[in-house]
Amino acid sequence: QVQLVESGGGLVQSGGSLRLSCAVSGFSLGDYATGWFRQAPGKEREGVACISSDGMTAYEDSAKGRFTISKDNAGNTLLLQMHSLKPEDTAVYYCAARYGRGCQSGVRYWGQGTPVTVSS
User: What single string gives the DSSP state of each residue in 76-89?
Assistant: First the structure.
């Protein structure tokens, strides 16, 4: 049974940092691409960052230089370190696993989401 369980969200002031974690069970992070998405109120869900099975990363433009995606294959945990947070980063953040090894494949599994609120 595949499970993705996010944690680490919360309330932070503008300019602050947060680290999101996603505990993965039911498959190995070394076998599939995984990533983070977010959905702000009234907006569509959007991709934030992705990491392929072999560790190549990709970021949405607004996340470049501020967010870092990484994974601990041994612990089967996906991470998202976020710095210089802005109010527009406020959203529910979702961990996701893709169908294939690369970031171009579609999403197969979703976590339940963790809310991030950035106050101005």
Answer: TEEEEEE-S--GGG
